[in-house]
What does this fold into?
Amino acid sequence: MAIKVGMVSLGCSKNLVDSERMLYKLRSHGYKLVTEPGLADIAIVNTCGFIKSAKEEAIETILELGKLKNDGTLKKIIVTGCLAERYKEETAELFPEADAVVGIGNTRDIVDILDHVLSGERYICFAPKLDAELSGDRIVSTLPFFTYLKIAEGCSNCCTYCAIPMIRGKFRSVPMEDVLKEARFLAENGVTELVVIAQDTALYGKDLYGEPKLPELLTELCKIDGIKWIRTLYCYPERITNELLDVIAREEKLVKYLEIPIQHCNGDILKRMNRWGDAEKLEALFAKIRERIPGVILRTTLITGFPGETEEQFNELAEFVQKIRFDRLGCFAYSREEGTPAYSFPDQIDEETAAHRADIIMQQQMLISCENNEKLLGAELEAVVEGFDKFGECWFGRTPLDAPDIDGKVFFSSEKPLEIGKYVKIRITDTLDYDLIGEVIS
It folds into this structure.
């Protein structure tokens, strides 16, 4: 009887791609994959270790699996990912219930790691982080019609609040031929929507080709048969070029959507964050983007409570959000992370104040989003069918205006049965907070 393996993938979509590559290797070597750890013989936790809340989730997950192991449901537990990479031997000491604790450079050898633990060995190993594989076959674990396309690993930006460079290493682009090969494989296997990701997508190719190559890569991706929507996330503002904007405006398969994490708008805070810009430069950038890509959806992320953030600087951020009126926005309270420069900055803001400020921004954004949605009443939009809500007795999906996992949904009625992954035309009839309500018209 085949040994059953369950994967718990925590954190970001980039981590999910790593999990999918491990799953492919395990299935190729005869392991049976199950969706619930409680049904598995071996559980693998691909952890996140980016900020405090992510670390807490990882710790809680490992402890819950430990309970399953203690009662005999699970036989073995393997811990990998960012938490293991960041804290290494400390992780192994903290979790004696883990049969293996390995770094991100080891996941390419996940089959050998299982061999070690199945033989009764406790396996602790941390290969160089630069050994983390940049490409490879994978099992799509999202809905079958969309997936994430990771085009680079690591980060070299060294923002003062961020632990990613010390966890994941320097920025390394995936060679373009490998990206395109993977994208073609995904398209041949039913994927119609690609979400292009990296820690800084706009930097793609600089390390390999001497200059950023994201516009060229997106142009080539658009030539792949079967792909309908291509969405680009995590473009740093200082790298948004006219060439990139023109490609997005020109290519039909590129949805008119850009995620541009700015973190703040105050020039002094951005300088202490080792980030680019100030309110004036950012306002000019967003005006240019909207001019060159009519109807573009702009998404950003912000941090409140960064060390030294004054009430006046926070108010400037709130006023900036009100003025720019982002279509999509996420705001997070600053997380003080050991090992980062900002950890030792003076004038740390207490967690309660930072969280309160984030709540204010998100309340602002709720009103902006509701007003933006109301402008869509009567509009006809294309949507991809994601499922059926048996409680609401309606279908749900996404329009090009929304990225999977992080944005809103559209809920809609249909006189005929629909198929998940199909694209339909929706007329918008109502709104519900961040979501839309409509009906199928074709």
Observations:
- The mean pLDDT is 96.
- The longest strand covers residues 380-389.
- The two ends are 48 Å apart (CA to CA).
